């Protein structure tokens, strides 16, 4: 029987781990005062009163909270056909033989019209009437910013906390695709104040202009640069050439605005080519949104290990480096593409790059592996973050007793390159803190989701795990061993 042996992290003293846990315990990310002031200055320039815009923001927030991820055309057709079939079976007995003889096709035509209207009503009620979010006016952009600036900032900031594992990483350039209210800018500059260049891209002209207004300096610019950052670029579209790249690319709640799966993957491929190192995808907590994240993840992982065999053979032939071993691997149709990728990496001469359809990807967070998700598409791997909402009417949020609100979301951070050996990033899915012991459902690197139980007798390991929240990295290394016992816990 396979089981897990638990080891203390050898590289970090437990006292240092416990200090880090205090930081992980804080999951509230509030907007900087400068961001609040900028939003206020932009809102007061609108034609409608701030209280009216806040009312529109509340309605929009409720609508976005209930919004579904766009279903595929095949799924929509299947649902419509099923609803139509059930309605027809119920309507069939309502038409008498007299009606059929007296009115003929007119009755059936009226029935078809009634069924179509009823199908549309049911689909709309079930939130299948997906439409992309359109921001076409300054007031609409202001309402969106009031509704989403604070939660978007909290979500992006929570994702950037994953870079605590890489304290030396300092990006010079960042792309925020679908920048909207500018939350990505504030999250990035709060995390990395020394970032040199930030590019914000949004298709909505009204949203982009309002974002520019909120990012203007309050005092008149003396150096000819009117914005709060000296090197911030605003664009409606990506720069056409993929040669313009960025250290970090952020795409926050943008996949839900694209109805076609093929178009979503085309965008993901375009963003991946423009990322020097990291691509951050963030969506809502709904299972459909998580499915969209998994679709993008699997696409990049698959294409990153799919070797361009013709190009490989051509390149090695030109360099007179083509070996019989490489040819045997390429022509072995019993091997999967991934098996060929691994074997070819070892077979090609040192220093040679293996040409793949897309740059090779690995999952930096939250997954501790590059395998299939053990949750599948029917459950979502979600995370929580707390924030202080910004309101233009002076009221206090009533969702929490302390005036804060909680946002749920799902995310994926993909890194260029292959996964590092012996990298321990097991993730706590559910941490149940019971009397005298804790039970954790942990997403592991090779054995899917496993349940680990620690009691007080495990001392500092027990304390370390007990103070962790759902979604945190499991602070103990897991190693698969063989035993007749279910679990083996070593101090």
Description of the molecule:
Pfam families: Rsm22 (PF09243). InterPro entries: Mt_RNA_Methyltransferase, Ribosomal_Rsm22-like, SAM-dependent_MTases_sf. It is found in: Mitochondrion. 40% of the residues lie in helices and 19% in strands. With 491 residues, it is an alpha/beta fold. The chain has four domains: 2-26 and 422-489, OB fold (Dihydrolipoamide Acetyltransferase, E2P) (Beta Barrel), CATH 2.40.50; 33-50 and 140-304 and 359-412, Vaccinia Virus protein VP39 (Rossmann fold); 73-125, no CATH class; 311-347, no CATH class. Strands 2, 3, 4, 5, 6, 7, 8 and 9 form an eight-stranded mixed sheet that branches. A hairpin with a 2-residue loop joins strand 10 and strand 11.
Keywords:
single chain, 491 residues, alpha/beta, OB fold (Dihydrolipoamide Acetyltransferase, E2P), Rossmann fold, 4 domains, 8-stranded mixed sheet, 3-stranded mixed sheet, 14 strands, 19% strand, disordered N terminus, disordered C terminus, metal ion binding, Ribosomal_Rsm22-like, transit peptide, Methyltranfer_dom domain-containing protein
State the gist of this model:
The chain has helices at 14-25, 33-43, 50-65, 73-91, 97-103, 105-125, 138-160, 183-191, 205-214, 261-273, 287-303, 309-318, 324-331, 337-347, 459-466, and strands at residues 2-8, 173-177, 197-201, 232-235, 246-252, 275-284, 361-365, 383-387, 405-416, 427-434, 437-443, 449-455, 476-482, 487-489. With 491 residues, the chain is of the alpha/beta class. The chain folds into 4 domains: 2-26 and 422-489, OB fold (Dihydrolipoamide Acetyltransferase, E2P); 33-50 and 140-304 and 359-412, 3-Layer(aba) Sandwich (Rossmann fold); 73-125, no CATH class; 311-347, no CATH class.
């Amino acid at each position: 029987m396979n089981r897990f042996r638990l080891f203390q992290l050898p590289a970090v003293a437990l006292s240092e781990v416990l200090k880090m846990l205090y930081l992980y315990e804080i999951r509230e990310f509030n907007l900087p005062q400068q961001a609040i002031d900028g939003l206020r200055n932009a809102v007061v320039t609108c034609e409608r009163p701030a209280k009216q815009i806040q009312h529109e923001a509340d309605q929009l927030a409720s609508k976005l909270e209930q919004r579904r991820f766009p279903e595929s055309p095949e799924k929509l057709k299947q649902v419509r056909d099923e609803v139509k079939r059930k309605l027809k079976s119920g309507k069939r007995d309502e038409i008498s033989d007299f009606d059929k003889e007296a009115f003929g096709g007119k009755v059936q035509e009226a029935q078809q019209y009634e069924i179509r209207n009823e199908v549309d009503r049911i689909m709309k009620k079930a939130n299948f009437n997906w439409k992309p979010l359109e921001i076409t006016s300054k007031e609409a952009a202001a309402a969106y910013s009031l509704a989403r600036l604070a939660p978007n900032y909290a979500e992006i900031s929570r994702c950037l906390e994953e870079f605590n594992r890489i304290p030396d990483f300092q990006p010079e350039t960042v792309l925020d695709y679908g920048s909207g209210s500018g939350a990505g800018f504030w999250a990035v500059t709060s995390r990395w104040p020394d970032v040199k260049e930030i590019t914000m891209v949004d298709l909505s002209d009204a949203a982009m202009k309002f974002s520019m207004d909120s990012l203007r300096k309050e005092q008149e610019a003396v150096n000819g640069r009117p914005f709060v950052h000296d090197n911030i670029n605003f664009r409606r579209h990506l720069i056409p050439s993929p040669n313009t790249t960025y250290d970090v690319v952020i795409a926050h709640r943008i996949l839900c605005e694209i109805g076609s799966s093929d178009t979503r993957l085309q965008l993901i491929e375009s963003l991946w080519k423009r990322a020097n190192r990291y691509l951050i995808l963030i969506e809502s907590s709904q299972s459909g949104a998580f499915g969209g994240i998994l679709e993008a993840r699997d696409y990049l992982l698959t294409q990153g290990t799919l070797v361009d065999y013709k190009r490989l053979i051509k390149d090695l032939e030109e360099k007179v480096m083509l070996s019989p071993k490489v040819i045997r691997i390429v022509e072995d149709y019993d091997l999967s593409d991934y098996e060929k990728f691994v074997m070819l990496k070892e077979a090609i001469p040192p220093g040679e790059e293996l040409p793949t359809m897309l740059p090779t990807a690995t999952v930096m967070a939250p997954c501790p592996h590059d395998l299939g998700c053990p949750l599948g598409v029917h459950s979502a791997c979600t995370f929580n973050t707390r924030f202080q909402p910004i309101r233009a009417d002076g009221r206090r949020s009533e969702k929490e007793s302390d005036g804060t609100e909680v946002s749920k979301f799902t995310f994926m951070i993909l890194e260029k390159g292959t996964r590092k050996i012996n990298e321990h990033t097991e993730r706590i899915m559910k941490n149940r803190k019971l009397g005298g012991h804790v039970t954790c459902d942990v997403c592991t690197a090779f054995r899917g989701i496993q349940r680990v139980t620690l009691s007080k007798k495990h001392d500092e390991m027990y304390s370390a795990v007990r103070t962790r929240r759902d979604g945190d990295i499991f602070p103990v290394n897991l190693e698969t061993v063989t035993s007749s016992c279910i679990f083996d816990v070593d101090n």
